[in-house]
């Protein structure tokens, strides 16, 4: 833990720094993987499964049988929980559908926007220590609501060549039937380039390690869009004297357990809450199965005593955290001050895990200070908004002169002619 | 002109190909420019002005006097036209403001989104053959509506070291007072890195040549966002037997005059309209001051006879044009078929120039088939949508079990604890 008592404002820019990753180092490898997948297709993916995931896979497509069996391999309780979460996520994301509103900017000139789903989207779900079926919900639910016609999912197999049944169950529940056993940069390459089995998609979503992140960035040169740039997960908790140290500690640790690079920041105005939260963290961490990872994350975490909640909010806006928890009695007062954050949790009972899993909000959020210029994933991420306009002859008459004068001033006479010829 | 009569569907993927630009070629130069601007700041920009724009500039900041004088250097008619366009653009973009809607996903669990402006944005306006003051409107109006606190503008000086007065007038009208005389990749570098005079911004908007495009792409590694990837401008016109060949020709030419790399596509079911439109193009182009550029664009334009309007729409969806004009009597019938397009113009009186300048829609649109996965610039481009949630104790009780089960199944016990400790 790094402890700061009332740090001066001039030190803040240093305190909000995120870890720097050397992108150049792996860029050669990413290029090689894209070339191999581009040339070798499915066969290259099967070889990468062997090389990187120690998995023997005869074919990369998950079979109907595997998909059907998954349902029997997980508990009823888990199924119910996933269904409940799906309902809440659906409800919140459905509320983001905006009705078309036609605007007559001047008489006879009508403009509006209509949503169209991105036709083909790819979801990447990492393997590794935690089977992130919750991320399947967070990406597949809005993709379906938006009306994406082709939704595919790539995730690495375990060493026996299988996919975690909770991932398969959730995918099926969300209507995804094209699931492929491939992970890492090669999965991203496959979705960007297409193979015999895997269709080329227009946008790639989902978290991953630095290879996946670099591959998503690289994929953009093939015309593919990505959800957002990525970095390690983050939480910033602001607590007042009415906060509960045990709750704050639990929230900080739920961020810390994600990985040794997780970013954890705690700020309070209250010395008692400060020390008791630190004590609670030390106590709670001992019982965690992932306590080694969490401990490493805590080593570089920031615990900051501040003069006022206002000051904490200003620091938070500079930091731009992925998750911001306001463990404040009068949180309503501070909401308008929030400028940069991915998702905000208000009050003592709004733990980050609620949004991570089941409250309804999306957990795919901007990290690494990208909350300054990016939004988290929402229904909007799966659509394009196309503008439409209709001008009547009268409408063009009304606006024609304006267009002609402006076009001429820009030296674009054909633009002017397109009006003049119609009004002649 | 490339003329195709009823091309088979299997040939379409070739027909929709866009020109390929070699990005690797200029990447060394872009890196050098970023390094020079990073080290040299304003002085480097002054030197680049001399080197690339043959302009002597003592300082890069446009002075109050220059800004005030601009008003006297342009005609009253042009001022009025710019003001009229600004009103329409404001009206349409203001209609995109969505009110916050709080959703109770289950009792005691309330989720919503709030917009926050991106604090600092930079607008790039190219110099060159046309002074694009219309693009100032298209970017500054929504930036202001969104509430961006710092809106800066960079544009290259002419060889006398001045900025076109229409650009200055429009910028001032839109409340932009920080204007800098710098262009090309160096302007992008300055906005991404910051200099003594130019503040570092969080998002960069605006068109430009391949150096600007490459620099915007490169800028992203400094954490800056950009409006969208870019390519040459495009129009696809679909006409039926009731279309007016002279109007279609004028629209095609208003695209062609943008530059020799402009993409122009004309499709019709009617042989008479087909030949007469070609004739009208040949006739109209002769009178254009930019006829050499337009002629080069026409050399690689596509004129395609198709069997049905349905077929034309399918081709258009595969092409994903920046601008789509439906010169069709029953255009309403075909709107639902449109899947991929930047902005759509309906009927015989909705010329592209209307949207380019004054109807109210934005003219910063996805090109190069990016209409498959990107929207044009709108109010959304200048805000982040932050999610908020509040859970009451009762709300957490209702949803707690679901979170605990899911967290445990993902192996994230600290996530589970954050709920359990609150419900104990």
TrEMBL record, chains A, B:
- Report the source organism: Chryseobacterium elymi
Sequence positions that bind substrate: 233, 255, 258, 323, 356, 410, 415
What parts of the sequence cross the membrane?
A: none
Cofactor binding summary note: Binds 1 zinc ion per subunit.
| Entry-linked InterPro entries | Ald_DH/histidinol_DH (IPR016161), Histidinol_DH_CS (IPR001692), Histidinol_DH_monofunct (IPR022695), Hstdl_DH (IPR012131)
Q: Is Repressor a UniProt keyword of this protein?
A: no
Protein origin, superkingdom: Bacteria
NCBIfam families in UniProt: hisD
Query: Which residues are catalytic?
Result: 322-323
This chain belongs to the protein called Histidinol dehydrogenase
Q: What is the lineage of its organism?
A: Bacteria, Pseudomonadati, Bacteroidota, Flavobacteriia, Flavobacteriales
Q: Name one GO molecular function term.
A: histidinol dehydrogenase activity
Task: Write out the residues that bind Zn(2+).
Answer: 255, 258, 356, 415
Pfam family example for this protein? Histidinol_dh
Biological pathway: Amino-acid biosynthesis; L-histidine biosynthesis; L-histidine from 5-phospho-alpha-D-ribose 1-diphosphate: step 9/9
Q: Which GO terms describe its biological process?
A: L-histidine biosynthetic process
Q: Which residues bind NAD(+)?
A: 124, 186, 209
Reaction(s) the record says it catalyses: L-histidinol + 2 NAD(+) + H2O = L-histidine + 2 NADH + 3 H(+)
Assigned EC number: 1.1.1.23
């Amino acid at each position: 833990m790094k402890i700061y008592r009332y740090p001066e404002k001039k030190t803040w820019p240093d305190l909000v720094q995120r870890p720097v990753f050397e992108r150049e180092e792996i860029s050669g490898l990413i290029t090689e993987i894209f070339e191999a997948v581009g040339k070798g297709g499915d066969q290259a993916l099967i070889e990468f499964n062997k090389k990187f995931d120690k998995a023997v896979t005869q074919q990369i497509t998950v079979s109907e049988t595997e998909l059907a069996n998954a349902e029997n391999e997980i508990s009823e309780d888990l199924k119910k929980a996933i269904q409940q979460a799906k309902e809440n996520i659906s409800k919140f994301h459905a509320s983001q559908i905006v009705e078309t509103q036609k605007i007559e900017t001047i008489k006879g000139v009508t403009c509006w926007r209509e949503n169209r789903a991105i036709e083909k989207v790819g979801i990447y779900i990492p393997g590794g220590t935690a089977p992130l079926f919750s991320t399947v919900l967070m990406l597949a639910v809005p993709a379906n609501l938006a009306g994406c016609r082709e939704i595919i999912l790539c995730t690495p197999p375990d060493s026996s060549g299988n996919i975690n049944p909770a991932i398969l169950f959730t995918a099926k529940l969300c209507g995804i039937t094209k699931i492929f056993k491939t992970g890492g940069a090669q999965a991203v390459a496959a979705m960007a380039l297409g193979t015999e089995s895997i269709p080329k998609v227009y946008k790639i979503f989902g978290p991953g390690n630095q290879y996946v992140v670099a591959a998503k960035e690289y994929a953009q040169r093939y015309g593919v869009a990505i959800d957002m740039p990525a970095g390690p997960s983050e939480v910033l908790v602001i607590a007042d004297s009415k906060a509960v140290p045990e709750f704050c500690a639990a929230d900080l640790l739920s961020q810390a357990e994600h990985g040794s690079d997780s970013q954890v920041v705690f700020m309070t105005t209250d010395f008692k809450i400060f020390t008791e939260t630190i004590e609670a963290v030390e106590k709670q961490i001992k019982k965690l199965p992932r306590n080694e990872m969490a401990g490493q994350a805590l080593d570089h975490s920031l615990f900051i005593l501040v003069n006022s909640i206002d000051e904490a909010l200003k620091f938070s806006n500079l930091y731009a955290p992925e998750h911001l928890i306001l463990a404040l009695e009068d949180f309503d007062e501070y909401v308008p001050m929030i400028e940069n954050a991915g998702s905000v949790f208000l009050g003592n009972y709004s733990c980050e895990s609620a949004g991570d899993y089941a409250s309804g909000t999306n957990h795919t959020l901007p990290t690494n200070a990208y909350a300054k210029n990016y939004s988290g994933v929402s229904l909007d991420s799966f659509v394009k908004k196309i503008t439409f306009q209709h001008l009547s002859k009268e409408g063009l008459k009304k606006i024609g002169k304006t267009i002609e004068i402006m076009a001429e001033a820009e030296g674009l006479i054909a633009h002017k002619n397109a009006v003049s010829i119609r009004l002649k």
